[in-house]
TrEMBL record, chain A:
InterPro entries: DNA-dir_DNA_pol_B, DNA-dir_DNA_pol_B_CS, DNA-dir_DNA_pol_B_exonuc, DNA-dir_DNA_pol_B_multi_dom, DNA/RNA_pol_sf, DNA_pol_B_thumb, DNA_pol_palm_dom_sf, DNA_pol_type-B. Belongs to the DNA polymerase type-B family. This is DNA polymerase. One of its GO terms (molecular function) is DNA binding. It catalyses: DNA(n) + a 2'-deoxyribonucleoside 5'-triphosphate = DNA(n+1) + diphosphate. Keywords: 4Fe-4S, DNA replication, DNA-binding, DNA-directed DNA polymerase, Exonuclease, Hydrolase, Iron, Iron-sulfur, Metal-binding, Nuclease, Nucleotidyltransferase, Nucleus, Transferase, Zinc, Zinc-finger. It is found in: Nucleus. Residues 12-87 form the DNA polymerase delta/zeta catalytic subunit N-terminal domain. Its EC number is 2.7.7.7. It comes from Kingdonia uniflora. Residues 439-872 form the DNA-directed DNA polymerase family B multifunctional domain. CDD domains: DNA_polB_delta_exo, POLBc_delta.
UniProtKB/TrEMBL annotation, chain B:
Heterodimer with subunits of 125 kDa and 50 kDa. It comes from Kingdonia uniflora. It comes from the Eukaryota. Residues 184-393 form the DNA polymerase alpha/delta/epsilon subunit B domain. Belongs to the DNA polymerase delta/II small subunit family. This is DNA polymerase delta small subunit.
Length: 999, 441
């Protein structure tokens, strides 16, 4: 039975929420209240099948989490309803009915709208009572009414994501009529569930069945595949057991015949209907727990379902675990402060977690491109061949060999997500995150940070008999507050070691040190009323008052303490652990704990979150600022020549949670010991657990401005660890590679080689190369994603205009929505708009179109360059950008534009470019004498190109993994893509020119 | 086609011979770059070699079925034919040059890219399979070899190799029976213009060949030389002259001086006897194999003689029906980078057995992307197989199973060793002609 999937139908758990018990309402009034409520509910939502809507109303002693309160508890009403949907389902209609009241009420109860149904409902049945309440100005609100039902269930049963659950024998029975495709289906009561904390043997990972799949569809030329028209032609599947490194099922379903592939089960079908149904049956049979892939959430899954719809296969979309439950495609918007707003599609697959590697990548890593190709190049160190979707149809329409070719490609696309997931240990990290924060794994991808904090908050509050108010969402909110300011940066190039003092988990430790929490915050009113003794409260720099922990221990600090304590334990265990799998789990856990601890602060500050409390977050940052300033003061006071030190220490820069100090000593070793001393001394002046740590020394250090610096990073005095840069290395995608290479090389020369003249010379050479048109085109390519069609953009944009132009040239290969558009900026007529100057790099190569080097000089490289060089070089601008090296310029003559169309092509002398009438010869009579030398030049050029040609094209064969088949790859992210293309073209031209020297 | 030396005192007659160039297959003048890739040359190679191998399999393993990679069945013994691909850990990758972040350590280029973890893969049009077992050693083979393998698929999906069949030496025309001694002289790596090259040595060589040196005995020997082959790297041009765009006037002369000097040397030889010149890596010729003949305009003096033939690299010809085949050394140098052998002669012998002089082309050895043929396939076995620009002079006589006789010659770099090699076409005996000035002559 080990490794079987189980569906457990848990009975007896009902959704509920709390409301304040209106004063004067006693236990006797409850039944009447219940009846009116029930009647109202029936009236408005007839026929929902449930015999009773309101199951129970109960009076309970609870306390709101908001604000410090002296009395221990108040009376609350717990309202238990029959179905989770009842709350939100009826909300709208009830809201309508009492619109007039709302207007009046809104001013007082800012939580009205969100829980409007409940509130409005309440006042309708007890209208007279309401009037009285309103006058008194009492707070009436719902509590915990916006908790998702699954989360509610998990919290009440102490279940976390990735949890082991035991159902003792005898407490369950096999379901007679199964509802799911699970191998085992049982019924039990929710109270019989035994949840095991993920410790010891229960920290093991379940042997999940992971399905990785990818589909190919035959698009029409010039269009992105559309499910209404374009057939699904192949589906590749790999199934792996979590923890094993080889898939145990590899298969591919193809439309029309396909030659066999070693180690893969190839299933060919004649109709698309059969392909789709075979896939559905496969899913049901394999019964995967986790479905992974690249961009499956937004493309593959919705496409399959929409395609089945288009073909009229009604019973296709049963890919969840529940029998006869149809998966549908929904549009969803995901908005988070951290990740921004994203539109996406959602396909429900009940009982199976969808894990889209693309989403995970976009969340967890900052990369310049998220194509599967560049992601696998980055993490797995291998280039993937990229077949353009316009070629796919050709391959499909070929024979079984070409379809096999496509199948291999498709399989690779299914295999790479699997490899990525293994390599980056996503399963471990996400399961650990789910365990730590107590939310289901699916929430981690589809929701923001706040749900994780909310889950922990609710769990903690439940233990303390506290309830959370349901607060109205304020939308985007303008409630910004002063962020973490940084100390003024004393810019410049520092040739002496700079010690860096870091606060360890600054914000969490501030919250712990000052006991900042919802339940310790004293309202200004209460400050006056309660007259708390000053030794029991902390007044924050922003003027808020929080009680100290002797009066009331905050919940947030407690959560944080647990998180950080657990992290410490996990780290200690990690050191001891030997088994690589255990290590992976523990490392994932400590990482999850760290992230969670840091997101608590964000939760209180996020105005779109469930329970924002700007009093807390602004206090935290203000304390943070104070700490940084205190540190600066202490350092500059203590470490002086007067204090017995060799030099006066100087704080040159301070960031959110670190301070850079120049102690004046010239050896790294000395700076380190002073740094350690300073960290220890200053930590002593702060309240525990705020702690200043010494970690690293920068030497040399180039401080450009705030949040922009570079330096060599030393953690031991013998050898530097790496070159560390912040805010400089422009990995931004709207920069071309040239910028990145140039800046990296310059920093390398300045910092590691300490060769400033060398760096200057390098810049000059690069600029000269650029002006002389000797730059490799791929370094100049800028890429942008095409998200909307022409009309979609309000302002004309370079990449979008180019896509339009390319469509006119050749609709088949033009980029479509979702593609990334690479372009270069070309020389255009004077006064041409910036967006008119973009051009397809391949087109530029083929037609010798001149590049707008001035654009690259002024708009791309000058700013980052000057930023680096201004602190270290006088007249950096004149020296670098206007020197002698900018005098010679070479411009190509375009072969297809403007006047060139009218020009007549004539052969010219290879030596002096004089037109020669006799086309049979290579040289004019004048240059005849230099024949040997000119020939040497020509042939040397050919030799160089041949060498390049050979290297590039054999590399592509290597990536492709086949010698006998042509390379099809069109991956524009590949560093040699343009070079390869250019080599091919240059080679052809050079060969022709060489042939003019008849032998 | 021989020249006569008019020496009034001795009246020695230079021997004559019949010369026939077989270079046509190496010409690319009619070829064009039209976007073709390297898959076609592999395809052509596999196709031709497979025909040969299939015909041999009948006698080699008559009882075994012949399969494609796709048709392999678990545990079933069979014979498969395909192109080898060697997975090499240390093989330099052009992507690294472009994409890797700059590190503090400069890229180290080892002389040989072998690594113990290298493994072989066999590929045909239908797919690839990893080769296992101890019978096939990755250090002996290179990417591009076409072989037949006897073995079976293991449960891990590998192909366990039990026996290997190479195409073996190609068929050979019988060596013509001739009683007279006639010599063909090979020299390579004159490197005129190189700082280490000694003009005196080159002049000694020329004078010896042309019969202007030594006593009568030596002159008699010289008169028996019927042909001279210069196997590449005749000049060394200053590097970096062509990279930049500007070429100052003073550089022009620097560039053409070595070539002029060479022209003078060659004129003297060509005036005396037939002379073939092959291009090499350092010569002003194209890079990819087959390298095309050096242009006549480089040798205004020598071109005037019809005894002067500028030929391709590889170069194939017949002298009195004795077949010669050779290169300027790139093919063997490349094998040395990507496989192991005791001596250069072993590499040469291997290429004979593979019936292919440059299997690493195009993978690691630059070559022209042929579309319909593979000119490096050896259809007929040469009698003399030479390779230029090697570190030392070596030779070996290889006997084939069908009685083929092949003289393998490593021609040393003349500028370093002062050695040229003479082969007697009567009996394929060869000896070194050493011109060393170190011996205070």
């Amino acid at each position: 039975m080990v490794g079987h999937s189980v569906c457990c139908n848990v009975h007896g758990f009902r959704p509920y929420f709390y409301i304040n018990c209106p004063p004067g309402m006693g236990p006797d009034d409850i039944s009447k209240f219940h009846q009116t409520l029930e009647a109202k509910m029936r009236e408005k939502s007839a026929n929902n099948g449930s015999p009773k809507c309101i199951l129970q109303i109960e009076m309970m002693q609870k306390r709101s989490i908001m604000y410090y309160q002296q009395q221990q508890s108040q009376m609350f009403l717990k309202i238990v309803v029959a179905l989770p949907t009842m709350v939100s389902g009826c909300r709208g209609r009830f809201f309508e009915a009492f619109k007039r009241e709302d207007v009046r009420l809104e001013g007082r109860f800012n939580n009205l709208q969100y829980s409007s149904f409940l509130f409005a409902f309440y006042c309708s049945s007890l209208l007279c009572l309401l009037a009285g309440i309103l006058e008194e100005g009492m707070q009436i609100g719902t509590y915990e009414s916006n908790v998702l039902f699954p989360l509610r269930f998990m919290i009440d049963c102490n279940i976390v994501g990735g949890n082991w659950i035991e159902i003792p024998s005898g407490n369950y029975r096999r379901t007679a009529k199964t509802m799911s495709y699970c191998q085992l289906e049982i019924d039990c009561l929710y109270s019989d569930l035994v949840s095991h904390e993920p410790e010891g043997e229960f920290s093991k990972m379940a042997p999940f069945r992971v399905l990785s799949f990818d589909i190919e569809c035959a698009g029409r030329k010039g269009f992105f595949p559309d499910a209404k028209h374009d057939p699904v032609i192949q589906v590749a599947n790999l199934v792996t057991l979590q923890g094993e490194n080889q898939p145990f099922v590899r298969n591919i379903m193809t439309l029309k015949s396909c030659s066999p592939i070693v180690g893969v089960d190839v299933m060919s079908f004649d109709t698309e209907r059969e392909v789709l149904l075979a896939w559905r049956d496969f899913i049901q049979e394999v019964d995967p727990d986790i479905i992974i892939g690249y961009n499956i959430c937004n493309f593959d899954l919705p496409y399959l379902i929409e395609r089945a719809q288009a073909l009229g296969i009604a019973d296709f979309p049963i890919i969840g675990r529940i029998r006869n439950s149809m998966s549908r495609v929904k549009d969803a918007t995901f908005s988070s402060r951290q990740y921004g707003t994203r539109e996406s599609k959602e396909v429900s697959t009940v009982g199976r977690v969808q894990f889209d590697l693309l989403q995970a990548m976009q969340r967890d890593y900052k990369l310049s491109s998220y194509s599967l190709n560049s992601v696998s190049a980055h993490f797995l160190g291998e280039q993937k061949e990229d077949v353009h979707h316009s070629i796919i149809s050709d391959l499909q329409n070929g024979n079984s060999e070409t379809r096999r070719r496509l199948a291999v490609y498709c399989l690779k696309d299914a295999y790479l997500p699997q490899r990525l997931m293994e390599k980056l240990m996503f399963i471990y990290n996400y399961v650990e995150m789910a365990r730590v924060t107590g939310v289901p794994i699916s929430f981690l991808l589809s929701r923001g940070q706040s749900i994780k904090v909310l889950s922990q908050l609710l769990r903690k509050a439940k233990q303390k008999n506290l309830v959370l108010p349901s607060v109205k969402r304020k939308g985007s909110g303008d409630g910004t507050f002063e962020g973490a300011t940084v100390l003024e940066a004393r810019t410049g190039f520092y040739a002496k070691p700079i010690a860096t003092l870091d606060f360890a988990s600054l914000y969490p430790s501030i919250m712990m040190a000052y006991n900042l929490c919802y339940c310790t915050l004293v309202t200004p009113e209460d400050v006056r009323k309660l007259n708390l003794p000053p030794e029991c409260v902390n007044k924050t720099p922003t003027g808020e008052t929080f009680v100290k922990s002797n009066l009331q221990k905050g919940i947030l600090p407690e959560i944080l303490e647990e998180l950080l304590g657990a992290r410490k334990r996990a780290k200690a265990d990690l050191k001891k652990a030997k088994d690589p799998l255990v290590k992976a789990v523990l490392d994932g856990r400590q990482l999850a704990l760290k992230i969670s601890a840091n997101s608590v602060y964000g939760f209180t500050g996020a105005t779109v979150a469930q329970l924002p409390c700007l009093e807390i977050s602004s206090s935290v940052t203000s304390y943070g600022r104070q700490m940084i300033e205190d540190t600066k003061k202490h350092v500059e006071k203590k470490f002086t020549t007067d204090g017995g030190y060799e030099h006066n220490a100087e704080v040159i820069y301070g960031d959110t949670d670190s301070v850079m100090v120049q102690f004046g000593v010239s050896s790294v070793d000395a700076a380190m010991s002073l740094g350690r001393e300073a960290a220890e001394y200053i930590s002593g002046t702060f309240i525990k657990p705020i702690k200043l740590e010494f970690e690293k020394v920068y030497y040399p250090y180039l401080l450009i401005s705030k949040k922009r610096y570079a330096g060599l990073y030393w953690t031991n005095p013998e050898k530097f660890d790496k070159m560390d840069t912040k805010g400089i290395e422009t990995v931004r995608r709207d920069n071309c590679l040239l910028v990145k290479n140039l800046i990296t090389e310059c920093l390398h020369k300045i910092l590691i080689d300490q060769d400033i003249p060398g760096a200057v010379q390098f810049v000059k050479n690069t600029i000269s190369d650029l002006l002389m048109n000797r730059m490799d085109l791929s370094l100049l390519v800028i890429t942008k994603g095409l998200t909307k069609t022409g009309e979609g953009y309000a302002v004309k944009q370079a990449h979008n205009e180019l896509a339009e132009r390319m469509r006119k040239r050749d609709a088949a290969t033009a980029p479509t929505i979702g593609d990334r558009v690479p372009y270069v900026i070309i020389k255009a007529a004077k006064g041409a708009k910036a967006y008119e100057k973009s051009e397809d790099p391949i087109y530029v190569l083929e037609n010798n179109i001149p590049i707008d080097v001035q654009y690259y000089l002024e708009n791309q490289i000058s700013k980052p360059l000057l930023r680096i060089f201004e602190p270290i070089l006088k007249n950096a601008s004149t020296e670098l950008l206007h020197g002698n090296h900018t005098r010679s310029v070479s411009i190509l003559t375009p072969s297809n534009t403007g006047i060139m169309k009218f020009a007549k092509k004539q052969l010219s002398c290879i030596g002096c470019r004089t037109v020669i009438s006799n086309g049979e010869q290579a040289l004019c009579p004048h240059c005849k004498g230099r024949e040997a030398e000119l020939y040497c030049k020509s042939v040397a050029n050919v030799a160089d190109l041949e060498m390049l040609f050979g290297k590039l094209w054999t590399q592509c064969q290597e990536c492709q993994g086949s010698l006998h088949q042509d390379v099809l790859c069109t991956s524009r992210d590949c560093p040699i893509f343009y070079r390869r293309k250019k080599a091919q073209k240059d080679m052809a031209e050079a060969k022709l020119q060489l042939d003019r020297w008849q032998f | 086609m021989a020249m006569e030396i008019d020496d009034s005192s001795n009246n020695l007659q230079r021997k004559q011979s019949l010369y026939k160039s077989l270079d046509e297959t190496f010409g690319v003048e009619r070829e064009r770059y039209t976007g073709q890739q390297y898959s076609q040359i592999y395809f052509a190679r596999l196709h031709l070699m497979r025909t040969i191998l299939y015909s041999l399999v009948d006698t080699w393993k008559p009882h075994l079925p012949v399969c494609t990679v796709l048709g392999l069945e678990l545990g079933k013994e069979c014979v498969i034919v395909g192109t080898l691909y060697k997975h090499m850990k240390l093989k330099p990758c052009v992507l690294d040059e472009y994409s890797k972040e700059r590190t503090g350590i400069p890229l180290v280029r080892p002389h040989n890219f072998m690594h113990p973890e290298d493994h072989l893969v066999l590929e045909d049009e239908s797919g690839r399979v990893k080769l296992g077992g101890t019978v096939i050693s990755p250090s002996l083979f290179v990417t591009g070899n076409v072989v037949a393998l006897h073995g079976k698929e293991t449960s891990a999906g590998d192909f366990l190799v039990q026996d290997i069949l190479e195409a073996g030496l190609p068929p050979q025309e019988e060596l013509p029976f001739d009683t007279k001694d006639k010599y063909v002289v090979f020299v390579s790596g004159l490197s005129v213009g190189c700082s280490s090259s000694n003009p005196l040595l080159s002049q000694l060589l020329v004078d010896h060949i042309t019969g202007h040196l030594g006593d009568e005995k030596e002159q008699i020997l010289a008169s028996q030389i019927v042909h001279v082959v210069i196997a590449g790297n005749s000049v060394e041009l200053p590097t970096g002259l062509f990279n930049g765009q500007y070429l100052a006037a003073k550089d022009h002369s620097k560039l053409s001086m070595p070539i002029k000097e060479l022209d003078i040397l060659l004129t003297q030889i060509a005036a005396a006897l037939p002379l073939d010149i092959m291009p090499g890596t350092s010569d002003p010729a194209n890079f990819a194999l087959p390298q095309q003949p050096l242009h006549r305009c480089l040798f205004p003096g020598t071109s005037a003689y019809n005894t002067f033939v500028s030929c391709t690299n590889p170069h194939s010809f017949e002298v009195d029906s004795v077949r010669f085949l050779g290169t300027s050394g790139q093919n063997i140098d490349d094998l040395d980078r990507y496989s192991n052998a005791e001596s250069r002669l072993d590499f040469m012998e291997r290429t004979l057995r593979w019936r292919h002089i440059a299997p690493t082309a195009p993978n690691t050895l630059g070559c022209y992307p042929f579309t319909d043929r593979d000119p490096f396939l050896m259809e007929k076995c040469p009698h003399v197989y030479f390779v230029g620009n090697q570190s030392k002079y070596e030779n070996r006589l290889v006997k084939g199973p069908e009685g083929q006789l092949v003289r393998l010659i490593c021609i040393p770099k003349f500028c370093e060793s002062g050695v040229a090699v003479a082969v007697n076409i009567r009996n394929l005996e060869c000896h070194a002609l050493s011109f060393s000035t170190d011996l205070d002559l």
